[in-house]
Structure to design on (121 residues):
């Protein structure tokens, strides 16, 4: 969201930069960590897979919202919404190396932390 990026620009310093990127079309700038909180569940399977492929090219780690209680991921048009479990099809991520509880809005929701090299397949 451009407004959110603009608001965070005051926190920029050497090695920390905020920018708007269409991660579906292009890899983001290289970074240690890609933070995808409440983003992937707004993307179709196709767009989410493209975004994840680009993120894996540019980042060593991924922190992303996942809902472990969801047993079936449904496809949607990009821009819509549904909860997703990144360990289920079509994502099939391994268990996160670590989780951060992020359940203020949805009970059970977490941010999973993965090494992107383990997601490349």
């Amino acid at each position: 969201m451009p407004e959110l990026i603009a608001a965070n620009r005051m926190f920029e310093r050497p090695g920390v930069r905020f920018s708007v990127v269409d991660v579906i079309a292009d890899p983001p700038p290289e970074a240690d960590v890609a933070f995808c909180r409440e983003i992937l569940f707004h993307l179709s399977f196709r767009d989410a897979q493209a975004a994840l492929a680009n993120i894996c090219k540019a980042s060593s780690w991924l922190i992303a919202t996942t809902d472990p209680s969801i047993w079936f991921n449904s496809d949607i048009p990009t821009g819509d919404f549904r909860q997703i479990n990144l360990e289920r099809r079509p994502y099939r991520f391994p268990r996160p190396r670590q989780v951060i509880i992020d359940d203020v809005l949805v009970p059970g929701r977490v941010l999973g932390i993965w090494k992107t090299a383990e997601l490349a397949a």
The chain is about 15% helix and 20% strand. The chain has one domain: 31-118. The longest helix spans residues 45-58.
